[in-house]
Amino acid sequence: MDHDRVAKHTALIEQEDDLLKQLETCQVMLAAAWRCARSSGENLHLPTVHCLISAWRSIFQLIDDEALQVQLHLLPFATLSESDH
Predict the structure, then answer these.
(1) What is the pLDDT of residues 48-84, one digit of tens each?
(2) pLDDT digits over 1-48, tens only?
(3) What pTM was computed for the model?
(4) CA–CA separation, 2 vs 8, rounded Å?
(5) How far is CA 7 from CA 1, 10, 27, 67, in A?
(6) Fewest Cβ atoms closer than 10 Å to its Cβ: which of 13, 33, 47, 80?
(7) CA–CA separation, 13 vs 62, rounded Å?
(8) CA-to-CA distance for 5 and 3, rounded, in angstroms?
């Protein structure tokens, strides 16, 4: 691969890593919020819980969609390296 392709490939890998870290952070935050709500001893207002879960799902979906786009951009690199062998 030439220098430009290597740079593009590296940038895509770094972007994918960043998105995976964002997903992990969201999962940790959701788990912490859930533990806090459950351990508070307060009754949970189900419509509020539903809204919060819907918001988290939207965030997860946005990050996941972006990660899919990055993975699709990485496909030509995988195809190219397989044809080199």
Answers:
(1) 888 988 999 999 999 999 999 999 999 998 876 655 5
(2) 689 999 999 999 999 999 999 999 999 999 998 898 889 888 888 898
(3) 0.78
(4) 10
(5) 10, 5, 30, 18
(6) 47
(7) 18
(8) 6
Of the candidates 55, 68, 67, 65, the one whose C-alpha atom is nearest the C-alpha of residue 26 is 55
- Structural domain of 16: 3-84
Q: Phi, psi (5° rounding) for residue 44?
A: -90, 130
| Residue 64: closest CA among 6, 36, 24 | 24
Q: What is the Cβ-side half-sphere exposure of residue 56, based on CA atoms within 13 angstroms?
A: 18
For residues 1 and 9, the answer to whether their CB atoms sit within 8 Å is yes
Residue at token pair 């490939």: 9
Residue 26 neighbours by CB under 8 Å, 6+ apart: 56, 59, 60, 63
- Dist. CA 27–CA 64, nearest whole Å: 13
Based on the structure, what is the number of domains in the chain? 1
